[in-house]
TrEMBL record, chain A:
PROSITE patterns assigned to the protein according to its UniProt record, in alphabetical order: PROKAR_LIPOPROTEIN
Organism: Pseudarcicella hirudinis
Pfam families for the chain: DUF4249
Protein name listed in UniProt: DUF4249 domain-containing protein
Cross-referenced InterPro entries: DUF4249
UniProtKB/TrEMBL annotation, chain B:
Membrane protein topology class: Multi-pass membrane protein
Keyword Disulfide bond attributed: no
Official protein name in the record: TonB-dependent Receptor Plug Domain
Range of residues in the leader sequence: 1-24
Length: 372, 804
């Protein structure tokens, strides 16, 4: 048995055991490998390939991008699609390209030094709809009263599994939260040219800058959530927990949930990641290992170890709001987030608002289905 | 006898008080304190014993007649008489104007019965026997050692011996001389123990009250034992008293115990019943946060023995042993890919053994034993739509007979036969259960392990003894079964299946067999020292499938088959033993080297859960273990104990038949999870009077290995460690000091009911010893964390009673 109720072991040990960070840790080995993060999906223009050299350090994960490589995908009918480099090491498919369920794809990469990498053919599986989403309020008492992880809403999904083959699923989510303040500067100086706070010695006085328009912070799932239908093939899968929303307010909570149908190789890959990060630190850990070259191999040097996976999947999305007043006992109150600092104000023509800059964790474009 | 009945502490206090007042000689005649010191057994006077009054304020020696005389002023004094080879005598004397006389008898400790915790057979029976690497532990001694949470624990006590370790506190099993936990053959009255712990590794399964003694064979395993490659732990239950009713028990923090010996027909038939039951739930209720409060964790063991001696030539005994654990926990997962809210675990042994001993004459006796044993585990969740009910079972039946024959002084011969039947039900999920979760029934495994053995201890001459034996074991895996056939030149996998061969019921699927030579030799260098050599080969047909740091109690056992070869291990050892001062001190040096083949490892990302084709998940490798064990023990007297140092290594290499795809750690040797090179153990027991005993144990060892990453990579914006080699770093070193104080019969009255209190502090200085090291995301990278199991001192108090 691989996955054990870690939670339980932690409970038993909660009384006696403790977990401490190691302060004087010395890294015994340092190596770097090519890391290929290749996603191919059924979303138009949504397929991306990222090429990096992995970091030798454990503290700062700065990856060196592998630029100017030739990246393409070939399907089982021999149709080849070229990816173009958007930023250093990031390669994107043409805007109108999307993968088709039932078809198989192969990834080809040639670096500027002439090294050639090729994946095995991976078949895109069709993904069923999310039939129902349920939220359930739950208290986890192993966390303290002031811990955000204590009270929350479990998000459970139901869907119909396909009876024909072994299916593998993955869930990812995005949460958008509308924000009022776009910058927090110690000492209060925002540089509107560089668009960042001026460096000031810590003054203990924090100023916050109001956004100059609509702005949303985006957060993502931290955990890997995967599932295989080994024991429920062809059944309606009920009550699969895929996320948890915090109880930090009573306002509706915006949620964008993605259900993916992934390949067996991708499932194996994500399971190994989960075992290393999520399922470690128990009595019953399994040996920590990294799965190299799962479905991508170097044709020029077959012994080269390659990180990452060619992940071919189809997606169904569901956008919804969680009612954070439902099912909550009357004696449970939200653990409101405190926004630190003092709002920066000054008279015209002095500027006191900061723009909302687009990025992976921030946007000024209202998410689909946003209700004011 | 004017023996001080106060504790040594109060004695010390009185002494300090007295010495604070200088007692000057006055004008009147100083009275004399006269005495005669004799040997308590022989009554002979002891010459040259030293007599010390009030810690050397004045002192003298006894003369040839054992007499002494000291002049001391009026007052109350403490005196101590000591002599080499005798237990020191402490007493109090009050001088009031006239002479005082007394006779003091001293106990010869060289003739004292050993009550030590452990002894190597070499000195206990006789340094001159050929056994090597064998330790005997007396339960009486074990009970004096400091315990964890007040539970007398055999598995923990064994870890104070050189060559015995585990992956960490709370580990489920022992690693003996670099062997895996499933390589130990554990017997309790001839019945096998498949899982030696309760509560996932926290406590041993054995109810200590029912146990008389334990023999641990770390090497030099006699030919009558077989089936496991590293060691044998043979636990003997007490034979109930045929004459007198006796009862004993205890109340502790974790469990309550009771044991009774009940004579039914005087001198013929008697019964022993011993039980232990936990009431942990209250621990959760009192100390645990709210949601652990709903956790249920309970265990019990029950041992019974019926002993019948119809006449002087025959004895029969029927032993039974039950153990059970039950937990109910809230958890999101119990099995991978199963949705469950709350899960229960339930497992335990049901063992029975019937044995018959017949004495033909003083030279010949016969032993026949029949054993039936079951180890079952169940994982269940009663969740309405996703209910699960998973059952595993190992069923073991054994019939064995052996004859002891001693034709003359020079030979001790033992020959025997044994047949073991294994029926393993490796996993039955949701059999007859209505649930959305599928029914998965793994096929049962049947097999036989047949063995014959002969062994002779031959005393060649006064100095040289050789014990040579041979065991032949034949293993047969039996149908019905279906064997998958895989394409040649490819590792077994779902992709390389080319067909299935069905084997009919009762047909032999696969058989393995081999000779297991056993040899130990002793050469006496003198009356008090000897040199010994041992070699043995062992085969193991039953193995535990687990790639966890320590196996789960629900882990699956499997026997050798078409694809799983039996483990074979060759073991060599050499020892030097010497005793001093008529066996009061003992030193030993043992060195060993062991090589094993066909030990199991697992493919990357292996899936062992309910897998019908386990051959696709395993790789066979090699193991190598070696070490040197040094021990100095004081076995008699007021202070007993030992210090041992061990240097030990345990290494593995897994290449597999298809190195490109299977090899682990690039095919290089790597340290096993329990490789701890330096080990130091100290055990000290001081018994200054009949009413007190103090024990201290100290343990130090090198931290065990773990895999340390060599960098980071990114997946979906998150950082993950990159692991390139197995067990390439070590967790911090382990050390711990425990203390216990036992007060026997605090009322000090001789009554049939005798109570005692044991006060224990486990991990006295609260060292946060690491169990494991793991990595979690932290800012831009990952950060190492360590998990400590018993991270603070743990104080407990236990009350024990005896009714004699």
């Amino acid at each position: 048995m691989k996955k054990f109720p870690i939670y339980f072991v932690l409970l038993i040990l909660a009384v006696f055991a403790c977990v401490n960070p190691i302060k004087d840790f010395v890294q015994v080995d340092a190596q770097s490998f090519l890391d290929i993060e290749a996603d191919l999906n059924d979303q138009p223009g949504g397929s991306v390939v990222k090429l990096n050299m992995s970091s030798k350090s454990l503290q700062s994960g700065v990856m060196a991008p592998v630029a100017k490589a030739g990246v393409s995908v070939t399907d089982d009918q021999g149709v080849k699609v070229l990816f173009s480099e958007t930023t250093n090491g990031n390669y994107t498919c043409p805007k109108d390209f999307k993968g088709v369920a039932g078809r198989s794809y192969q990834l080809n990469i040639q670096t500027k030094e002439g090294k050639v990498y090729q994946s095995s053919f991976e078949k895109m599986q069709d993904v069923p709809d999310i039939q129902q989403v349920v939220s359930q309020f739950e208290i986890k008492d192993n966390f303290g009263k002031q811990d955000q992880r204590r009270a929350g809403f479990n998000i459970l999904v139901d869907f119909q599994d396909s009876p024909n083959e072994v299916n593998y699923y993955q869930w990812n989510w995005k949460h958008y939260e509308k924000i009022t303040y776009c910058a927090f500067c110690d000492g209060g100086n925002y540089d509107f040219v560089k668009n960042q706070c001026n460096y000031n010695p810590p003054s203990g006085h924090l100023y916050r800058y109001v956004c100059d328009g609509n702005c949303w912070d985006i957060s993502f799932n931290d955990d890997i959530s995967i599932f295989s239908d080994t024991y429920v093939n062809g059944q309606r899968v009920v009550g699969k927990q895929v996320a948890r929303a915090p109880y930090d307010d009573k306002t509706p909570y915006y949620f964008e949930l993605e259900q993916r149908s992934i390949t067996k190789t991708a499932y194996t890959f994500f399971l190994s990641l989960a075992n290393v990060i999520q399922n470690s630190g128990t009595f019953f850990d399994i040996p920590a290992e990294t799965r190299f070259s799962l479905n991508i191999k170097s044709t020029s040097n077959p012994d080269e170890k390659i990180l990452g996976v060619f992940n071919v999947y189809s997606v169904k999305k569901r956008i919804f709001y969680i009612d954070r007043t439902k099912g909550v006992p009357s004696n449970e109150f939200p653990l409101y987030k405190i926004i630190p600092g003092e709002t920066f104000t000054c008279d015209f023509p002095c500027k006191s608002t900061v723009s909302c800059f687009e990025g992976p964790t921030r946007t000024k474009i209202a998410p689909v289905g946003w209700v004011q | 006898m004017p023996v001080s009945k106060k504790s040594i502490l109060s004695l010390t206090f009185v002494l300090l008080f007295l010495t604070a007042y200088p007692l000057a000689a006055q004008d009147f005649v100083v009275p004399a304190f006269k005495g005669k010191v004799i040997d308590s057994n022989t009554g002979m006077p002891i010459d040259g014993a030293s007599v010390v009054i009030d810690f050397k304020k004045s002192g003298t020696l006894t003369n040839k007649e054992g007499e002494f005389q000291v002049f001391i002023p009026n007052g109350e004094y403490v005196f101590k008489i000591s002599h080499v080879g005798y237990k020191p005598y402490r007493g109090r004397v009050s001088i009031a104007g006239k002479d005082r006389e007394m006779t003091i008898s001293m106990e010869d400790i060289t003739k004292q019965l050993e009550e030590v915790i452990v002894s190597s057979v070499s000195t206990r029976k006789d340094i001159q026997t050929p056994s090597l690497g064998v330790s005997i532990l007396s339960i009486k001694g074990i009970k004096r050692l400091p315990t964890m949470m007040g539970e007398v624990d055999i598995m923990r006590s064994l870890q104070t011996l050189p060559g015995v370790s585990s992956v960490g506190e709370g580990a489920n099993g022992l690693n003996i001389r670099g062997g895996n936990v499933d390589q130990n053959l554990i017997f309790i009255d001839n019945t096998p123990i498949f899982n030696p712990t309760h509560m996932f590794g926290l406590f041993s399964v054995f109810a200590s009250d029912a146990i008389r003694e334990l023999e641990l064979y770390k090497g030099g395993v006699p030919a009558r034992f077989g089936g496991r490659t590293a060691s044998v732990l043979d636990i003997k239950m007490t034979e109930p008293n045929l004459e007198k009713f006796k009862m004993q028990g205890g109340i502790g923090l974790v469990s309550n115990r009771v044991m009774a010996e009940i004579p039914v027909i005087k001198e013929k038939l008697s019964v022993l019943v011993a039980g232990r039951a936990s009431f942990n739930d209250f621990l959760f209720k009192w100390f645990a946060p709210d949601n652990i409060k709903s956790t249920r964790a309970n265990f019990f063991d029950l041992a019974t023995k019926v002993f019948y001696r119809p006449d002087k030539k025959n004895t029969f005994s029927f032993s039974s042993y039950f153990s059970r654990d039950y937990y109910r926990v809230d958890s999101l997962f119990s099995l991978e890919n199963v949705i469950a809210k709350q899960t229960s675990f339930d497992y335990g042994h049901t063992n029975f053994a019937l044995s018959w001993n017949h004495y033909f004459n003083t030279k010949t006796s016969l032993d026949v034993v029949g054993v039936v044993s079951d180890y079952k585990s169940k994982t269940s969740s009663v969740d309405t739509v996703n209910a699960i009910d998973l059952n595993n079972k190992v069923s073991y039946k054994n019939l064995k007979a052996s004859i002891d024959y001693q034709p003359n002084e020079a030979h001790k011969i033992n020959v025997g036969l044994s047949a073991v039947r294994y029926d393993i039900s490796p996993g039955r999920l949701n059999e007859g259960v209505v649930s959305r979760i599928a029914t998965v029934l793994l096929p049962d495994e049947q097999s036989w392990e047949l063995a014959v053995h002969a062994d002779d201890e031959f005393k060649v001459n006064k100095d040289f003894t050789i014990q040579y034996g041979l065991r032949y074991a034949q293993f047969l895996s039996i149908g019905p079964t279906a064997i998958r056939k895989y394409a040649e030149g490819q590792p077994p996998s779902d992709a390389s299946v080319i067909g299935v061969e069905n084997v009919a019921k009762g047909s032999v699927v696969k058989s393995y067999g081999g000779l297991e030579p056993r040899l130990t030799m002793k050469y006496s260098l003198s009356e008090s020292s000897s040199l010994k050599f041992g070699y043995n080969r062992m085969q193991q047909f039953l193995q535990l499938l687990s790639n966890n740091t320590t196996p789960l109690p629900t882990a699956r056992w499997t026997t050798a088959n078409e694809y799983i070869k039996p483990q074979i291990s060759d073991f060599l050892s050499l020892g030097y033993f010497k005793t001093y001062n008529e066996n009061v001190w003992e030193t030993s040096l043992e060195a060993y080297y062991r090589e094993s083949k066909n030990i199991l490892d697992y493919v990357s990302g292996s899936n062992l859960q309910l897998n019908p084709n386990i051959e696709t998940q395993i790789i066979e490798g090699k193991g190598r273990a070696y070490g040197i064990e040094l021990m100095l023990a004081k076995k008699k007297g007021e202070l007993t104990g030992w210090v041992s140092y061990t240097f030990a290594r345990s290494l593995q290499q897994t290449i597999g038949d298809f190195p490109q795809l299977q090899q682990i750690n690039n095919g290089n040797w790597f340290p096993s999870n329990y490789d701890k090179p330096h080990n130091l153990n100290m055990v000290m027991n001081i018994q200054p009077s009949k009413h007190h005993s103090f024990s201290l144990t100290f343990a130090y060892n090198t931290g065990r290995p773990f895999s340390s990453p060599s960098g980071l990579y990114e997946v979906a914006g998150k950082k993950y460690p990159v692991y390139t080699s197995r067990n390439n770093d070590r967790i911090s070193d382990y050390h711990r000091l425990d203390f216990s104080w036992t007060i026997y019969n605090p009322s000090m009255k001789d009554k049939r009911w005798e109570g005692s209190w044991v006060f224990t502090i486990y991990n006295l200085y609260g060292r946060q010893n690491a169990y494991s090291v793991f990595f979690k995301p932290y800012y831009q990278g990952v950060r190492p964390y360590e998990l400590s199991v018993f991270a603070s001192p743990f104080v407990s108090l236990t009350y024990n009673f005896k009714f004699l």
